[in-house]
Design goal:
alpha/beta, 8 helices, binds shikimate-3-phosphate, 170 residues
Length: 170
């Protein structure tokens, strides 16, 4: 049986990691969160990596990791929100499986990221809601090129079952 990878992408705070972990469990796939994997490889948090080495080095780490993961099968991969802005990452991931983009409103995104512990360097702004709206608009051409799943007003259970159904039928 083919075990094409399932790749969850989308903006920060759309629930990629939580949902990815659940999907992997249901499918019997291995779960990889690209940010967590990079953090464990470099021995720093993403915020530290941005601060000490800059965003460009982080983006290189993402690309190296994608090249490696795209050669494997049976993975559920939750990506950092900016990873798919690099077209080489999209090509490699698309060849290895299906990319699904999770969506949420700017207000929901702000609420979720504010409730979380880990720091998103790109949202350390005076007006994070405005930054989210601007980034969403900039990224929309890429995000909307993937199959989209709205996470608004849905429980985890609903999301997991809807995604599983879609994966099984596609
Ligand atoms: C980023 C999203 C973050 C992390 C980094 C940059 C982005 O991941 O990779 O802070 O450019 O959207 P999450 O989407 O998991 O928050």
């Amino acid at each position: 049986m083919s075990q094409k990878n399932i790749i969850l992408t989308g903006f920060m705070g759309t629930g990629k990691s939580t949902l990815g972990r659940r999907l992997a469990l249901e499918l019997g796939y291995r779960f990889i969160d690209t940010d967590t994997e990079i953090e464990s490889r470099v021995g720093r948090t993403i915020a530290e990596l941005f601060q000490e080495q800059g965003e460009q080095i982080f983006r290189q780490r993402e690309e190296e990791l994608v090249r490696e993961l795209a050669r494997q099968q049976g993975l559920v991969i939750s990506t950092g929100g900016g990873l798919v802005m690099n077209p080489r990452n999209v090509t490699a991931l698309q060849a290895s499986g299906q990319i699904i983009c999770l969506t949420a409103s700017p207000e929901e995104i702000l609420e979720r990221v504010s409730a979380q512990q880990h720091i998103r360097p790109l949202l350390q702004e005076k007006n994070p809601l405005n930054k989210i709206k601007v980034m969403l608009q900039e990224r929309d051409p890429i995000y909307s090129s993937f199959k989209q799943f709205s996470t608004s007003k849905k429980t985890q259970e609903e999301l997991v079952s809807q995604l599983l159904e879609w994966i099984r039928n596609s």
